[in-house]
Design a protein that fits this description.
Layout lengths: L5 H38 L13 H35 L8 H12 L1 H20 L4 H12 L5 H18 L11
Helix pairs in contact: 1-2, 2-4, 3-6, 4-5
Length: about 180
């Protein structure tokens, strides 16, 4: 039975719009994050925090510019993900008590907000250096290494949790099944 009250229809519209924004922002955020990881791998020797020797200074500077642009998209996408997921949780007809997968997804997403805030701060410093100053390559290298090594790998663990959210949303474990009446 569908609720036809005006406030219920408005809540349903808000939920659907927020869910659409959440999906689009997630695509932008994940895409920019993957692009950053690919650019990082161009600069660093595999498995280390040491720079590749063969990269020309001009190419390295261009990679920092691309990293700054990708970081701007990632930060914007992440902010939209957090805002829209908050609206989705507030207006969803699904209750976390009956849908454990929803609760697990929310916990995994919001657990790493402080980590993302700190790394976004470092990214914003790089964006500022790229677009509003004429900093030397050494300054970018220092900031880049601080960003990649930030919080001793916790941002990588956060990425794994975000991928886990996708799996949890698809398979929806921990959902209470209604038992049919005899």
């Amino acid at each position: 039975m569908t609720d036809t009250r005006p406030d219920a229809r408005l809540q349903d519209r808000v939920f659907r719009m927020a869910l659409t924004v959440l999906l689009m922002a997630t695509i932008v955020w994940f895409g920019a994050s993957i692009m950053r990881i690919m650019l990082w791998s161009e600069l660093l020797k595999p498995g280390t925090l040491q720079f590749e020797d063969y990269i020309a200074p001009e190419a390295e500077r261009e990679i920092y510019r691309l990293l700054s642009m990708a970081s701007a998209y990632a930060i914007g996408g992440y902010v939209l993900v957090i805002l829209s997921s908050t609206v989705v949780l507030a207006t969803s007809p699904l209750r976390p008590r009956e849908h454990g997968w929803l609760m697990l997804s929310a916990i995994l997403l919001f657990l790493f907000v402080p980590v993302e805030a700190y790394t976004a701060y470092l990214d914003l410093k790089m964006i500022y250096m790229e677009f509003y100053t004429a900093e030397a390559r050494a300054s970018f290298r220092e900031l880049f290494l601080a960003r990649v090594g930030a919080l001793a790998g916790v941002p990588f663990i956060a990425q794994l949790c975000y991928i886990t959210i996708l799996v949890v949303v698809v398979f929806q474990p921990f959902r209470k099944r209604s038992v049919p009446a005899p």
